[in-house]
Amino acid sequence: MRIPCPFCGERDAAEFLTIGSAPPPRPAADAPMAAWHDYVHLRDNPAGLHAELWQHIHGCRQWLRVMRDTRTHVVAGAEACRR
Amino acid sequence: MRHSALALLRHALTGNRSWAPSWRDPAPKAAYDTLIVGGGGHGLATAHYLAKNHGITDVAVLEKGWLGGGNVGRNTTIIRSNYLLPGNTPFYEKSMQLWEGLEQDLNYNAMVSQRGVLNLFHSDSQRDAYARRGNAMRLAGVDAELLDAAQVRAMVPGLNLDSQRFPVKGGLLQRRGGTARHDAVAWGFARAADQLGVDLLQNTEVTGIRIERGRVLGVETTRGFIGAKRVGLAVAGNTSRVAAMAGLRLPIESHVLQAFVSEAVKPMIDTVVTYGAGHLYVSQSDKGGLVFGGDIDGYNSYAQRGNLPVVHDVMECAVQLFPSMSRLRYLRQWGGIMDMSMDGSPIIDRTPVDGLFLNCGWCYGGFKATPASGWCFAHTIATGQPHALNAAFRLDRFATGHVIDEKGAGAQANLH
Amino acid sequence: MTRLATGGLIDRMQPRRFTFDGRGYQGYAGDTLASALLANGLRLVGRSFKYHRPRGIWGLGSEEPNALVELRAGGRQEPNTRATTAELFEGLVAHSQNRWPSLRFDVMAVNGLFGPLLSAGFYYKTFMWPSSFWEKVYEPLIRRAAGLGRAATAPDPDRYERMHAHCDVLVVGAGPAGLAAALAAARSGARVILAEEDFALGGRLLADRQEINGAPALDWVAWVLAELQNLPEVTLLPRTTVFGAFDHGTYGAVQRVADHLPEPPPDMPRQRGWTIVAKRVVLAAGAVERPIAFPGNDRPGVMSAAAVRGYIHRYGALPGRHAVVFTAGDDGLRTATALRDAGAEVTVVDPRPEAPAMPGMRVVAGARVVGTRGRLGLSAVQLDSGERIAADVLAVAGGWNPTLHLSAHQGGRPVWDAAQAAFLPGTPPPGMVVAGAAAGRFTLAACLADGAAAGLQAARDAGHDGRPLDLPQAEDEPAGLRALYHVPGRKAFVDFQHDVTVDDIALAAREGFRSVEHAKRYTTLGMATDQGRTANVVGLAILAEATGRGIAETGTTMFRPPYTPVTIGALAGAQTGRDFRPVRRTPLHAWSARHGASFVDSGAWQRAEWYARPGETGWRDSVDREVLQVRRAAGFCDVSTLGKIEVVGPDAAALLDFVYANTMSTLKPGRIRYGIMLREDGFVLDDGTCARLAKDRFFVTTTTANAARVMQHLEYAHQVLRPELDVAILSVTEAWAQIALAGPQARDVLAQVTQADVSNAALPHMACLDAAFVGGLRGRLYRISFSGELAYEIGVPPEAAEALADRLLAAGAVPYGTEALGVLRIEKGHAGGGELNGQTTAGDLGLGRMLSTTKDFIGRALAQRPALVDPARPVLVGLRGAGLRTGAHLLAPGAAAVTENDLGHVTAACWSPNLQQTIGLALLAEGRDRIGTRIRVFDALRGHDGEAEVAAPVFIDPEGTRTRG
């Protein structure tokens, strides 16, 4: 699998680490416990286009938001989380 | 028709022409008491125990493809109950006890082979962690032994204990662990359930779950609507997609796990061995193929295939442990879709929808759990209450914090 | 001998001696083991898997199901090698396998008598009684009978390597289509890799006698290769099998670098595993002839017709002098011609009533073969007319199966083409085109044209513009075929190696295993080492017939890597033995080794565990001495493995407040604070220290085990969660050698090695400063303590580490290792790996009060979940008692040893030379309330069941006066 790093170019996925689904925005500090539970544990987990987080740990160490199809593994794009 | 050596001989003498189908191919009825979605190991076992333990035979199993086509047919066939945490150990030990009587229970030889499962360790801290686990097993009445390097050497000829990297210091052994012929498990449960009156509906894909006023009424399928009082989901790998039909969002990601088998060779490994300095478990099938598994690829996937980095990693570990394997060839590989839960442990529970029950989150340990999962899920569905053995496998445990995190990896699915 | 006097691509000037089952034979350079065996008149080569039936050579290449041998000997012994792909080298040693006591007389062949009993799935239906017999009796018997060859027991003396390559166009297969594709692509300037599994390039052109542009086709092959070899961007990889198509244009290949040599030269790996990333791929893997299932079709001497003519043309080996050709179409007639021209007496059996007459041979039209005779090899062929024809070779032509595997590795299902009676590629992976016979184009002209077009298009798609090739002239007459899959009768084999018969497939269907996947699994069709390359289509046709469906509706099973079996060593590459994983060594590693250290693996690191001195009889002597030395005088320990991270920038403090559960922004420059980080789920991630070097610069340490994860965590917190913060995070673990100096005399020792003022006033507990050291070194001093003694950590550049250690030694401190470090921390009750196990909360560790209530931080919210603040959770306590060992569980005294009574476990234990007793740390339910009481220590795993006294977790200096002294 190849991941298009916006900084380093297309690189083998073995250079990256992924933690799975890109989470929604982190709840506000005073958000109810249920919001925190959902934020940390619940996932859309679609069979199809999926927003996920990869870090180019053996490259520029940037965290990337990658759009990838979980049925075909086709990558639609990747962008840095911090721009 | 009961299977026996005599029956086999009788059929052989008559040219094997009078064998009956292993199960019926019924048309769906308009409604059933209970529907089990998913004709894999867990779904079929659930149907079997619903009928056998609870007398509920007005049951259909809905399978989108062919029976046993999911993870029960794509795993490394290992059975064991060497768990650490009290939420897990008694459940898996129940499973082991059911495995031990499965052939007689089902009248089907699933080739359960208690050849031992040996977890190698390579450092004092790993030994300590295994000691903690082994003692937890003993408390739960599970057999466990801590072997030193000499004992490991005697038990597994061909294993290189003295590698220059991560030499083997010993292992945690569960002698009652071993392997079972995975396809036969599915077929055995299917045949037994069918004989108790369960309808097995293949090529019947669920496309929707009908819910009214918070109560399940049945499911839409590619063969029309089928009504039911109770619906149990046992579709590990695809749980999120099916549960979404009922509006549920779950603590689960789907990941690919690859497995490998070598060309058949004469017996060379007599036990199941897991590596402690990398991701590898290996055993040898009765046919002679070495069966390997490693880590999940790490990314979400429904594609049932993985990539080369894990292939390389698994083969490196294999050669590191068994140097003579370098000249063998790997013959096949496959990928299964794993329900990776957020604490690495499963869910068998009711759901917020009345009459809808959930069996999921097996990560890559679902095969060994097959009988107990069916046993407990059947109990949960039949009585509306969890069995004591699956009491900890609650859906709401992430909200309350009662997680069952054997690895201590936290809420990141691909670390479990 | 059946070697023809002339012809073939063998080098008759270079004889090669070899042995098979201990007998000596001779072949030539350019032979395979199979062609040499045939040339020596051997037909019986192996035994089948289940019935141990005698088997010979069926095919010409990697599709071979029958002729499997054990090749080489000793540590190089390799089982299941196809004789058809093993290149002959001088001194080759091969043995037949899966037989006992000999190939000609195999007692396991008795299985064949029980054929009907051993039908598909028989083992699922029996061996259940008595229940204990399965593992004790039946299973060992089955295991011994099954399997094929034997693995080596000695270590493999050869080495392997892995290679990565990138190219514009990868061409798989160097037959006519592949060569044309490679040439068309290469001429455009594209970077081309041409991979061919055979040792010779040319594909079927090597095996057939065809013409291109009116000249022998091999002249054209030579001309193309000459040009390709001269193009700088072209890499030719013979002996290289592309075995898998993975995501995004990544292909796995294995190159047999030295398998054709008696042994690899010292500078050469045996095999090389390739990862090839290709922008475009032309799959030109050709096609393989399939058999026809008829009774007795497995007897040695029954061969693929295409293989028979291949042996004649390529190797000058005549498989038999009395030949019958059983062909479902015109293609087999080419073999008949080749046999006739080689001097054999030929009879053609053609089921087509209109079968054409052939000069110089007898043609039996409208007939079928229904049986064979012969004990260990073919002696006669039985026709449905009742006629029996004496024969020593039966060439069978059942039609061609395109080798489309790679096109289907990403889920693109093959499509049945009824007109050609073949599965053709469906949707190949992105970037791949299939050309030539693999795409169902079976004439030479079509292969050349298809390949040339595919190669050109691939190059263009990869960004290289080229011109079309001038297409050479070649035969373009398709061979007629009337599909024939099987002939009625018993013992008609579909999967030769696994002994799957027509009856087995019919039985599976009868028993309800009607799905193609069910039938495969129930019968094991296509699961042998040839992966069904000869068997599958015939099997599908029979299943389709048995279930009343068409072949298209029946479909194929999934295609997955590898295309052919791949050597495990080639995939492991050089990453074995010492090089299995990288080793991380500290700057003091060599120094420690010189001073008697033994080392322990700690992740990738190797750490000194103790420093043995002459006269010490065991590790305990060394460790006890080191511990006492620290408590009584001074010792120093290499802690360079701790993760070290600099966090720099105007918002550095804000980020640290966010990732630490306690507050760091209030820390003054020059001061240090202990901190804990939680995961967002509220459990403890790691602990360590945080030193504020300047207003905008912090130095964070992590545990050795969690260094990488904490670094990721900080980067995640910054880049994903708080991207607005202006901060930079840098791992500096390797930039510093870090040495802990501890003990009541630590200050005195330190004063001897540094010019800095290290008085309590200048460097109080939890302070840090830049320092100059004796000898002109610069570094940092941190006054922190893990041991509970007066202690410092000294950071110096790695190259200065040895000089510093020498000076510390000279100043009176002794080195101590990780074991003593462990004892010291247990005595002091500091959390370590046993407690920071990802399952504990701050409260469990007695650190609950560190969680700030005045700021947001990672893990704050979920740390308040009911189960995480449950007062019944096990908490950190100390234990005293003989026999304590890490991993023991804790029970109330008198309580039964069952899970329900489990109160916790021992997380660390050691002999304390200071306290002169065994002490430990534990996580114990209601632990604080149990301090002073007795607890049962359950360690059945190691035969111990005793008691211990529960104590506070700090055994030494609970007031902390030593640390501050």
Concise structural overview:
The complex is a heterotrimer of chains A (83), B (416) and C (965). Chain A is mainly β and 83 residues long. Chain A is 11% helix and 40% strand.
Strand percentage of chain A: 35-45%
User: Span from first to last CA of chain C?
Assistant: 96 Å
* Helicity range of chain A: 10-25%
Radius of gyration of chain A: 14 Å
Q: Percent helix among the residues of chain C?
A: 10-25%
CATH superfamily of chain A: Folate-binding superfamily
Could you give a short account of the major beta sheet of chain A? 4 strands, antiparallel
Low-confidence spans of chain C: none
Number of domains of chain A: 1
State the major sheet of chain C: 7 strands, mixed
CATH topology tier name of chain A: Folate-binding fold
Query: What's the CATH class of the largest domain in chain C, please?
Result: Alpha Beta
**CA(first)-CA(last) distance of chain A:** 25 Å
Task: Tell me the overall shape of chain C.
Answer: elongated
The total tally of domains of chain C equals 6
The SSE string of chain A, one letter per element, is: EEEHEEE
Describe this structure in words.
The complex is a heterotrimer of chains A (83), B (416) and C (965). Chain A is mainly β. Chain A contains one helix and six strands, in the order E-E-E-H-E-E-E. Chain A has one domain: Folate-binding fold (2-Layer Sandwich), CATH 3.30.2270.10. Chain A is globular, with a radius of gyration of 14 Å. By secondary structure, chain B is α/β, with parallel strands linked by helices. With 965 residues, chain C is an alpha+beta fold. In chain C, the strands form 13 sheets. In chain C, strands 8, 9, 12, 13, 14, 15 and 28 form a seven-stranded mixed β-sheet that branches. A six-stranded mixed β-sheet of chain C has the order 42-43-44-41-35-45, sandwiched between helices. A six-stranded antiparallel beta barrel of chain C has the order 46-49-48-47-50-51. In chain C, strand 29 (493-495) and strand 30 form a beta hairpin. The N and C termini of chain C lie far apart (96 Å). The mean pLDDT of chain C is 96. The chains are: A mainly beta (83), B alpha/beta (416), C alpha+beta (965). The interface between B and C is large, with 122 and 122 residues.
